[in-house]
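Quick note —
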Amino acid sequence: MPNHPPAVILLSGGLDSATTLAIARAEGFDPFAISFRYGQRHAIEIQAATRIAQAMRVRRHVTCDIDLRTFGASALTADIAVPKSRSLDEMSHDIPITYVPARNTIFLSFALAYAEVVGAFDIFIGVNALDYSGYPDCRPEYIEAFEKMANLATRAGVEGKCQLRLHAPLVHMSKAEIIRKGLELGVDYSLTRSCYDPAPDGTACGQCDSCLLRLKGFKENGIADPIEYKKC
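Predicted structure written out below.
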């Protein structure tokens, strides 16, 4: 994409990150995607990220290996049950056990290094402050703080060549609004995977917080979710 500035996109393989990638492309950026194999039980999302990167023609897609099972303490990286069938009210109280300690800080640090290598001054992350309001690293003030730190910790920032910008375009959007935006931009949501506790074949459980919020978002748009869910 000549004359299009490079941008690093955190691409998990889920609905939010796919939409964020589409937004970055629509804003004229040449996307470089980064994904993480961090010991998550829902590793099926890595395959999804690869499909999305190919379908959306990113310039380069890298996958980093970090084993956060070393620390555990999360239902996604330890032998802890993933919460199921919770109400929206239950989801909005306290920090859920699916929170992975410092995950976004770790991921953004890798993305920052990647950005320096490819000459990008823009990083996109699909965090959302409306869903999972208890996640401390999904809040606007966290995004602002990391951006400030990034400009203190990089060669470009110190030399004053250009200020790095951390974009969180979904931070104030509901799941329904995110899906609506993605559909407007042509995102193929059948390629995405969001479930925290999928079956071995990748079928979504339909009962974890991530599945319930995703299903709610599609329902509010009056359309069916194109991925397969476990039959009850």
